[in-house]
Amino acid sequence: MRLSFDDFVIDTTRYELRRNDQPCKLEPKVFDLIAHFAQHPNQVFSREQLVELLWNGRFVSDATISTCIKSARKAIGDSGAAQRYIQTVRGRGFRFYAGVIRDAPATNEISGQPSKTAASDRNDDPSLLVLPFRPLSDQPESIQLASGLTMELLAILTRIPLLRLSARTHRYADLEVTPSARQIHEDLGVNFVLESSVQLVEGHHHINVGLADARTGFRLWSERFVVSRSVGAALQEGVVAITAKLEPQLYRAIARLVGSVDNEENGRSLFLEASSMLALKGWHHDSFAQAAEILRRSWQCEPEFALAPSLLSLVLGFGHRVGLLKDREQAKHEALKAAEMSLELDSLDSTVLGYSGCALADIGQPDRALPILRNAIELNPANAQAWAALGAACILHQRLDEGIAHIRHGIAISPLDSRLSIWGSVLTAGLLLSGDYEDALHQGQLACQRDDRNFMARVVLAGAYLARNENQQAHAALEDAYRIKPDLSRLQVHSLLGRDLGEALLKLRRPTTGNF
Asked: Which residue, 123, 118, 103, 424, is CA-closest to 282?
């Protein structure tokens, strides 16, 4: 379809905006917004409607929407002050004001069929409807807790890439009987439904949570959680407990959904395969190599899909930093190229910025990484990965107190995330640098507890013991690291502890048993 107004022409088939026949460079989401407005001139759209239509219901912050509106205005020579084309209708939303000329729908040159739009392509992403937590009594505490849990869980689940969270959460809030998961699938087309209830029983809140496959109605997982009566404490306990059990189940469900689709390989399904594998298997040398190869294929299948090169850059960048990949220089070069491309493709996606900024810090560009990571957090304050990456970048920049605080915050808002062992390892290293050996020991122990396969956590824990002159415990932790990674190298130990502490640790091993 071709849409024209004044000096502008929008080609929705080529995803191109031209002004006076000259192409305008746009992020994908900004193009989608301008194209949507031009297809519906003079119609007012609320922020909620824009989220549903352009972000497919995914939970996004007001800052993300405002930034996209601002970028769209800039692209067509508009501004918040002038509002020549994109007008703010106070209390209602936004309206596109222009005389738009619409041509016939564009067709695919090969098949002759109407071409898909970018929005319809995105509808293939896995989708989840989080039904409002239902209070089973009229007690104010239960009602308040139910509302709080719904909003907190929606915010946390935004960190799962490509999982669309339906914005129609309250569509079923006032119904006495909630429709079945299959009925909801027929109504909204979502893949998964999360249904929950809250009840106060003998001084404690009982929270029942269940995840269902909406297409079949089959219940994938359910569990009951018992938390404190105080709403504040119950909210914190409930979010931590639910997320810890729910997130792995969602990743498994997404992986099964992607694997069951009998289609040709495509960029998004490959990306989901790689991210699910990292979430379920952890961040290790074998999973990193596999994920990198899958993400290369994802990027090749869909060159305009920014998430693939951004996650690839993170995998390669972190692999370069801690020596998880065979050719470190090649990994560094490829990580930089992937990060640059992802930022060029989409600089308004918090996840893309978080991944790419982390990669840049890991390959030795913390100065450039810091503003990118801060932008990621501004766009989505719930992006725990960006908080942890920002903390790591600050530590690399010798801003230890700030870095430690940021990593702590990332861990706090991402309870029992599959990456917590990695983040805890970086936090332990930062605490060692700051001289807080007691907390370093505590955080190192937690990092080991969270993942039995993470050799990095064992190395930094050994460093914490050694800093406290507890050589026997340091030796035991180092041996545990070699249990996990028999080919652990001097370079990898140095990358985690620094040269001086790393060398002191390695001396605890007899040369005949070490692989240095």
From this structure: 424
What span, in angstroms and rounded, lies between the C-alpha atoms of 445 and 164?
35
For 401, residues 6+ apart whose C-beta sits below 8 A from its C-beta are 434
Cα angle 431, 434, 437 (rounded to 5 degrees) comes to 55
The number of CA neighbours under 13 Å toward the Cβ of 171 is: 11
Q: How far apart are CA 298 and CA 218, in angstroms?
A: 30
3-state secondary structure of 123: coil
Q: Mind listing the pLDDT tens digit for each residue in 124-177? A: 678 898 898 999 988 899 999 998 998 888 877 877 777 877 756 666 766 677
**Nearest 5 degrees, angle CA 269-CA 271-CA 272?**
65
Q: How many angstroms separate the Cα of 443 from the Cα of each of 29, 245, 439, 440?
A: 40, 22, 6, 5
Pairing of strands 219-227, 16-19: unpaired
Average pLDDT over residues 406-420: 81
pTM value?
Answer: 0.70
Tokens 């719904």 belong to which residue?
Answer: 150
Alpha helices (H) in 261-399, listed in sequence order: 267-281, 285-301, 307-322, 328-345, 350-362, 366-379, 384-396
Task: With a cut of 90, say whether residue 406 has pLDDT above it.
Answer: yes
Would you call 45 helix, strand, or coil by DSSP? strand
Within 8 A by CB and 6+ apart from 36, the residues are 45, 50, 53, 54, 119
Distances (CA, A) of 161 to 174, 190, 319, 422, 436: 30, 16, 21, 19, 35
Tally of CA atoms within 13 A in the half-sphere of 336 that contains its CB? 11
DSSP state string for 437-497:
HHHHHHHHHHHHHH-TT-HHHHHHHHHHHHHTT-HHHHHHHHHHHHHH-TT--HHHHHHHH
Alpha helices in 76-159 (DSSP H): 118-122, 140-157
pLDDT (0 to 100) of residue 415 = 61
CA 421, CA 209: separation in Å to the nearest integer? 26
CA–CA gap between residue 65 and residue 43 (Å, rounded): 18
Cβ 426 vs Cβ 407: under 8 Å:
yes
Query: How many CB atoms lie under 10 A from the CB of residue 286?
Result: 11
Average pLDDT over residues 391-395: 94
Nearest in space to 42 (alpha carbons), one of 89, 95, 88, 114: 95
CB contact at 8 A, 225 and 242: yes
Q: At what angle do helices 62-75 and 366-379 cross, to 10 degrees?
A: 110
**Tens of pLDDT along 208-237?**
999 999 988 999 999 999 999 899 999 988
As a whole number of angstroms, the distance between CA 100 and CA 1 comes to 12
